[in-house]
Amino acid sequence: MPANTPFTVTPYSVEGRIDYQQLLEEFGADELTDEQRKRFPGPGHPLVRRQIFYAHRELDRILDAVAAGEQHALVTGRGPSGPMHIGHIIPFYFARYLQQHAGTDVYIPLSDDEKYLLKEQSPASISEHTRANLLDILAVGFDPERTRIVVDSADADVVYPIATVLSKEITQATVDATYGDPPNVGLSFYPAIQATHLLLPQFVDGRQPTLVPIAVDQDPHVRVCRDVAAKERYDVEKPGALLSKFLPGLGGPGKMSSSDDLPSILLSDDRETVHEKIQRHAYSGGRTSVTEHRKKGGNPEIDVAYLLLYYFFEDDDETVERIASEYRNGSLLSGELKARAAEKVADFLERHQQRRHALGLLTDELEAYRLTPEERTRALGRAGYPERSLCRTT
Ligand code: TRP
Question: Looking at residue 299, which CATH number applies to its domain?
Answer without folding.
Answer: 1.10.240.10
